[in-house]
Amino acid sequence: ERLGALLRAAELLEDSPLQKAGYLITLAEFLYSQGFPLSDAEEQLMNAVDLLMECEDDSVDVEGDDDADDDESLISGASSVRSRVRSAPSHAKATKPGKGGKGSDAAAGDSQLSVLHFEQLSRIYVMLAKMAPTLAARTDNFLIAYYYMQRMWSLAVATADKLAEAEAEESNGNHTPFASPTEPHEWVG
């Protein structure tokens, strides 16, 4: 009964890809937790990745600025990782980056995406890591999830920095920019 409801909800949300991605993730979680074949859950997760990447591609196309190539290179750098996990050419852009950024610089190109996008992508790749049959595939998916979490935090820090800067300008005070760690060891102590 719940499976049917989730499938109908996903079908009804054809016009809203972001909401549909959320339902596909929920559907994949349900399939995984209820013991359905892993390939079914993986397929739903990859469909959600496609929807999220299409949203990113659409917003880059709408922007039409010179930074579009830079934004696209951030998400297309590790297609070899994904091709080892699943050989599906339609998912080639949904990978970890070849280059990274620091603090608000990394988030500057991500302004068309929200923290929700990155949170959903992180969830997807953590789930794919849990389903992965090999240690290498698990590691690859966890690294991709880590990358999207880092982008999520960079965007959040950049937004907080902009708000603090605007507040400092209003009160004619000094503003020290916030920064998010870029390396795993920087998050600890």
3D architecture notes:
The chain is built from 8 helices and no strands. It is mainly α and 189 residues long. 68% of the residues lie in helices and 0% in strands. It has one domain. Helix 3 (38-63) packs antiparallel against helix 7 (115-131). InterPro entries: CFAP46.
Number of helices: 8
* Oligomerization: single chain
Order of helices and strands: HHHHHHHH
Q: What is the residue-averaged pLDDT?
A: 73
Helix content: 55-70%
Quickly give the structural class.
mainly alpha
Main sheet: strands, sense, barrel: none
**Straight-line distance between termini:** 48 Å
Note the beta-strand portion: under 5%
Strand tally is 0
- Rg computed from alpha carbons, rounded to a whole number of angstroms: 18 Å
**Number of separate domains:** 1
- Catalogue the unreliable spans: 64-111
Region (Disordered): 79-107, 167-189
Protein name: KIF-binding protein
Biased composition (Low complexity): 79-97
GO biological process, one term: cilium movement involved in cell motility
Outline the secondary-structure elements.
Elements: H1 2-12, H2 17-33, H3 38-63, H4 68-76, H5 79-85, H6 103-108, H7 115-131, H8 135-170
Helix pairs in contact: 1-2, 2-3, 2-7, 3-7, 7-8
Q: What attributes does this structure have?
A:
189 residues; mainly alpha
How would you summarize what this structure contains?
Residues 79-97 have a biased composition (Low complexity). This protein is mostly helical and 189 residues long. Helix content is 68%, strand content 0%.
